[in-house]
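quick one, three chains, predict together pls
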Amino acid sequence: MVRVRLENLVKRFGSVTAVDHVTLDIGDGEFVVLLGPSGCGKTTTLRLIAGLELPDEGRILFGDRDVTYLPPRERNISMVFQSYAVWPHMTVYENIAFPMKIRKTPEQEIREKVLWAARLLQIEDLLDRYPHQLSGGQRQRVAVARAIVVEPDVLLMDEPLSNLDALLRVIMRSELKKLQRRIRVTTIYVTHDQVEAMVMADRVAIMNKGRLQQVGTPQEVYDKPANVFVAGFIGSPRMNLFDASVAEAQGAVVLDAGGLQIRLPEAYAGLLEGHETVVVGIRPEDIHPLDRVPPGVEPYEVDGTVDFVEPLGSDTIVHVKTPGPVLLMKVPGSYPAEMGDRIRVALNLKKLHVFDKATGKAIF
Amino acid sequence: MSGRVESYREYKGEAVKRIAVYALAVIIVSWIAVPLALIFVSALAQPSDYYNVHKIFPTRFTLDNVYTFLVVLGAWKSTLNSVIVAALTILISFAVGLPAGYSLSRYVFKGKDAFKLAIIGLRMFPVIVLAIPLVVIYLRIGLADTLLGVALAHTAMTLPFVVLITSSLFAGIPVDYEEAAMVFGLSGWEAFLRITLPLALPGLSAAAIFVFIMSWNEVFIASILTLVNRTLPADILVSALNAPDPYKFAAGFIMVLPAMIFVFFARKYLVQVWGISIK
Amino acid sequence: MDPRKKALLLRRLTPYLLLIPTAVYMALFVGYPIAETVRLAFTDPDTGALGLFNFQTLAQDFHFWEALRYTFLLAGVVIPIQVLLALGVSILLMRRFRGSGAVLYTFLVPLTISDVAAALIWYNIFTGSGYLNRFLLNLGLISRPLHFFGYQYRDMEFLAIVTTEVWRATAIVFVIVFAGFQMIGKDYLEAADVFGATQWEKFRYIIFPMVKPSLQTALIIRTLFAMQVFAVVWILAGRDIPVLAGETYYWQVELKNPNVAAAYALIIAVISIALGFLYLKLFKPKYLEG
C-alpha cells in the first residue's frame, strides 16, 4: 500500500503525444479512476505505471522509490488486463498461485492464500478447471484473484469490466469496490464508462487527448466541471451546452444564445468581465417544467415547444426547442408532453455553468 | 441445403447434381491416391509377378526389394544421411529464424516492412542457384561433401518459411499473456520461455515437420553438394536410376513413406502452414 | 550506464538484435553465394580472366536454346492446366458435402511428395511394363506397349513429364487459390443468391474477382518454381528434354565446369527476377503490404 506520484509524464508514439505532461498524486489506499474517451491516453498512462512502456519524460514514484525505468517485475504491482490474460495452459489454481510461485513462497502459504483469494471472488469451486472451461465472468474473477493474492503496492486495472454483459458489469462494479475497501490497496482503474467511474472512484482523473482535464471526487467533477470537456463527458444525459455572447441589456448582463436570452443576476455579472463569447451549460436535471419546480431552485423562465419526448420509465427526457438552442430536460417519472406542445420551463440559475469559449475553462 | 423442394424436376435436378459432385470427388481422390498406391504395389511386388506382363496387378508380395535396396545396395546409408541432414536443418533454421519470427510478431520498428518484404522475396528466390557457388565455397572451407554443408544450404532454403511461420504463430498468441507474466514477476525472456513457447509448441511442431519434409525431399542442392555422403534423393538420382525397376520403386516407396506418415500426424496444419509459407 | 538509458536502449534494440542471426545467415548463405555465382559466371575456367566466355559457350550450345525453349514450353503447358484444376477443385469443395474434408487432404498430399518420388511414381505407370501398358494390353486395347521413354519418343516423354508435373504441383497452386476462396465472406454469396444470380453469374461477378489476387499470387509462385524444374525431367527424360536446371546440373556434375554451370544459374536467377518484376508491374499484389 503506497502513495503513487506521476510527475510530468510524457509518452510519444511517433508524432502522436499519447500522454502529455500528466502530473497526478494518488494517496495511500485510494481508488483513483482514469476516465476518458478512447485514445485519451488513460491506458498508456496505466501501462507507464506498470512498466510495460517507458516514458519519454517524467517520473513515476511509488512512495519514495523512483520506479520510472524499472521493469514490471521489480515494481511490486498487480494488474487486471482488459482481456484478463488468464493463461490457458494453466489451471485456475496455477494461475492464481503464479505470482507467489515466482516469489518462491512456500507451498503451504501459497495454498492458503489462493484459497483466501478464491473465496473472496467466489471461485473456490473452480480451482481445478482450465480457463477454456470458464465463462467470461469467471475468467475475470480469476484475473482479479490473481491480482490480489500477493499484496502489491499498487493494483492496476485496465477496463476489467468492459467485456462483461451489462448485468454482470453492474454486479462486479460494487464487488470490486467492496473488495478494494477490504484489502486497502492503492488502486488505479482505467475506464471509458463514466457511470463506472462515478460509482467506484474515490477520485476521478479525467483525461482527453493525453492531458489531464480535471481531478476530483465524483461529486466535485459533477458539480463543478473545470472545463467544457468534463462538463460534457460527465452526466447522463449529457449536459446541455451551447454558445452565447455576453451582452448588456437594461443594466444587467445577458447571455445571448441566438434568440434565447438569459438575464443573469448581479452576483454573476462581475465574473463575466472581459469575456465576449462563452459556452453555457446546464444539466437536463436542472431544467424543470414550470408545474414541477422543486424547492431551492433559482428559476429563470424560458418559453419553448416540445420537439421530442423520450419516456424512459423512471424519467422522461423532453427536448425543448427554445428560440435559441434545443435543450434537453429531464423530468422524474412520467410527464404528459406531446410533440408540438407549447411549454414553459425554468432553468435553475444556481446550477448554470459558463465556460470561456476560447479556452473551454469554467468561469462559474 | 434443406428447405422444401418445389417440384419433382427440381428434386431430380438436385439428385443429379449430388451424384455428379460425389463422382467428381471420387475421381479426384483416385487421381491422387491410385498412382501412390501403385508405387507401393510395385515396390512390394515379387519381381517375377511384376515382370509378368499378363497380370495387370501383381498378387505376390515381398519385402525383398526394399531390403535389397536398403542393405545390399547400401541405400540405408543415404537414408540415414537424409534424416541427419533434415534434423540438422530443423535445428539450425529454428535456432536462427525463430527469434526473427518473434521480433516480427511482437515489435513495431523501423525497417520492419523492408525486412518482411526481403523475407518474402527470398522465399521465392531460386535457391537451387546457390548450389553452384556453394560447392566452390565449401571446398575452400572444408565443408565439401559433408552433411553439415547440405544442412546449411537447406537452411537457406527453409529459413524464410520458418521466419514467416513462427511470426504468424507468435502473433496468434496474445501479447497480454506475456505482459501479465511480466507484471507478476517474470522477465521478458522468461515470459517467452514459460508462457508463449509452450502455447506455440503444437504449431511449432507442425512447422518442424514441414521443414523436415522440405529437406528430405530436396534433390538438386543435395546432388550437387555431395559425392560420397549422399542423401537419399541424390542417391536415387545418381545410382538408383541404373538399377532394375523393382529397386527404383523401392526407392520411391522409401521416399514417400516417411513424408506421408509425418504429414498425417500434422494434417490439421497442412493448409494453414503451407498456405502461409508459400504466400 | 544510468538505468534509464540502459532500459530505453534495450527496448529499442531488442527487435533488431533478434533479427541479426537471420540477417547474417541470409547474407552469408544467399548474398555471398550470389556474388560468387556472378564471379564464377564471368570467369574463364581456363585462364581465370573475366569475360563473357562462358556465355559464349552457352550460346553456341544448342542444348541451351533447347533448354530455354523447353523450360518455358513446359511451364506454358502445365501451368494453365493446373490453374483450371485448382479452380475446379476449389469450386467443388465450396459445396460442403460429406467427405469434402477427405478430398481436400488427399488433394494436398502431393505437397509432401518430392519431385524425385513423383517421377518414380509416374515412371511406374508409364514404363514399358508399367500399369498403363499392362492395363491396355491385357484388355486388348493395344497390341504393342506404348513407349513413353527414349530419345525417339520425346513427344511422349514430354507428355509423361506434363502429367507428372500436373499431378505433383497442382496442389501448390490449389493451396493459395483455395485460401482465397475461403476468404470470400459467406454474406456476399448469399446476397448474390438473394438477388437471383445464376451459378455462372455468381462465379463471374462475385467469386472470380474476389479470388483474383490469390490467383495472381499462385501464378507467380508457380511460374518461378517452374523455372527451376529439374528432377522430374531428369529422371523421366534425362537430357532428351533439356531444361535450364538440368543443364546446370549437367555442366556442374558431369562436365565438372562450375563456371558454365554458374552462368546457367545466373540466367535462371535473372529470369526469375525479371518475372517477379513483371508480375509486380502487372498485378501490384496487395499481400505484400503486410
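Chain B touches chain C through 94 residues (CB under 8 Å).
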